[in-house]
């Protein structure tokens, strides 16, 4: 699939807490699928994540830090949102620099401009995936 087809498929997927496939996904499930489609890299699996379950979400965030480095806003970056030090939401930066994410159970997967996405939480950080040798594997 090309980028437009990937985005078209993703936009039709509803938000489902803990979902990890095209029948429905949460924010991490959407990012995991999108990252795999765009890069071929399959991110690790975690149990259902919810902003309502801080402990499970934080454990997932801590384990992801072994695989990523913080980077500037750029295509193919992971966009992580925080309230204080707590990870609460994630999205994926598309090649055209918009951010796609599954936000809540009242909507399907959504695309926002960076400024709108960053209004959803007090802090947004961007991360690039490391390759198997531990080197950044994102566009510069």
From TrEMBL:
SUPFAM superfamilies: Cysteine proteinases
A single MF term (Gene Ontology): cysteine-type peptidase activity
InterPro entries reported for this sequence: NLP_P60_dom, Papain-like_cys_pep_sf
Keywords noted in UniProt: Hydrolase, Protease, Thiol protease
Domain NlpC/P60 positions: 1-140
GO biological process, one term: proteolysis
Matches recorded under Gene3D superfamilies: endopeptidase domain like (from Nostoc punctiforme)
Entry's family note: Belongs to the peptidase C40 family.
Protein name per its UniProtKB record: C40 family peptidase
Protein's organism: Vibrio parahaemolyticus
């Amino acid at each position: 699939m090309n980028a437009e087809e990937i985005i078209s498929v993703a936009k039709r997927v509803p938000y489902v807490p803990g979902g990890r496939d095209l029948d429905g996904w949460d924010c991490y499930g959407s990012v995991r699928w999108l990252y795999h489609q765009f890069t071929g890299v399959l991110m690790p699996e975690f149990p259902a994540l919810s902003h309502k379950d801080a402990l499970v979400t934080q454990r997932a965030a801590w384990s992801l830090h072994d695989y990523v480095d913080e980077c500037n806003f750029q295509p193919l970056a992971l966009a992580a949102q925080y309230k204080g030090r707590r990870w609460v939401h994630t999205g994926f930066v598309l090649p055209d620099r918009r951010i796609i994410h599954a936000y809540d159970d009242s909507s399907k997967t959504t695309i926002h401009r960076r400024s709108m996405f960053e209004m959803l939480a007090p802090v947004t950080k961007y991360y690039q995936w490391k390759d198997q040798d531990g080197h950044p594997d994102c566009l510069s």
